[in-house]
From TrEMBL:
Keywords tagged on the record: NADP, Oxidoreductase
Protein name, as recorded: Aldo/keto reductase
Domain NADP-dependent oxidoreductase: 20-262
Homology family: Belongs to the aldo/keto reductase family.
Species for this entry: Paenibacillus yanchengensis
UniProt entry tagged with the keyword NADP: yes
Length: 275
């Protein structure tokens, strides 16, 4: 086993969330998610991000049952899908996810998308689960500022995390600033831009540190205070993505990477989607 990736950030309620995680989006081949999670835990990852809509919570659960890593050292995130949004349906969805994952307590439960006319009731259910001690932290995903402001008007508890698309071509500065002001941590999905890494500046900085462009981006995530969950099923890539704790970017390099922003999305836009 390699050294565990234990660098963490404290959420607003004091829960520590590992800053580097493994995402398992689109890992649907039978048995692959289980093998990937087991490998990741062996490599040293301590944060696994899944969702009901990924259809692999049961395989993540199988890996949790088989690994020698103690459960209390592993941070597990899952999400409430759109079909399950609403108060009672969210409570039922939580029970299904909990059973598939094989855990009594889920570390972080998110609303997957800001589904109009539904996410307020969904949030009420998450607050109830949190107060009952069934989840350690609650949050949202793909919420824009106006979604968060709407939620604040009805919520007793503010989200602790907002998981959004975030990378050098989509730095989401206003959203990041708003979330920082409200003690909401950002988690980056698609941090590696779905493999679109042929950017000269990233290659230049990577050569300086004898790293890859992917490692430079993930290091930039860490140093800008963002949680990051690169997805891979390849053991060598898992190791590569985790080998980002042995160097640091300069402030100038962080600023230059941030200046690459083009407001370019590789995934769904919460403003224009029909979700």
């Amino acid at each position: 086993m390699r050294q565990a990736c234990t660098q963490s950030v404290a959420l607003s309620n004091g829960v520590k969330m590992p800053q580097l995680g493994l995402g398992v989006w689109r890992v649907t081949e039978e048995g692959l998610a289980e093998r990937s999670v087991l490998t990741a835990l062996e490599v040293g990852y301590r944060h696994i991000d899944t969702a009901a809509s990924y259809k692999n919570e049961h395989e993540v659960g199988a890996a949790l049952a088989k690994t020698s890593v103690p459960r209390d050292e592993i941070f597990v995130t899952t999400k409430i899908w759109n079909d399950d949004q609403g108060f009672e349906t969210t409570l039922s969805a939580f029970e299904r996810s909990s059973q598939k994952l094989g855990v009594d307590v889920i570390d972080l439960l998110l609303i997957h998308w800001p589904l109009k006319d539904k996410f307020i009731d969904t949030w009420r259910a998450l607050e109830q689960l949190y107060k009952a001690g069934k989840v350690r932290a609650i949050g949202v995903s793909n919420f824009q500022i106006y979604h968060l402001e709407d939620l604040f008007a009805h919520a007793e508890i503010k989200p602790m995390v907002n998981q959004v698309e975030y990378h050098p071509l989509l730095t989401q500065v206003p959203l990041l600033s708003f979330c920082n002001d409200h003690q909401i941590k950002i988690t980056a999905w698609s941090p590696l831009m779905q493999g679109n890494l042929e950017i000269p500046l990233l290659q230049e900085i990577a050569a300086k540190y004898n790293k890859t462009a992917a490692q430079i981006i993930l290091r930039w995530d860490l140093q800008t205070g963002v949680i990051t969950i690169p997805k891979t099923v390849t053991p060598a890539r898992m190791i590569e993505n985790a080998t980002i704790f042995d160097f640091a970017l300069t402030e100038d390099e962080i600023a230059r990477i941030s200046s690459l922003n083009e407001n370019k999305r590789f995934g769904i836009d919460p403003d224009t989607s029909l979700l």
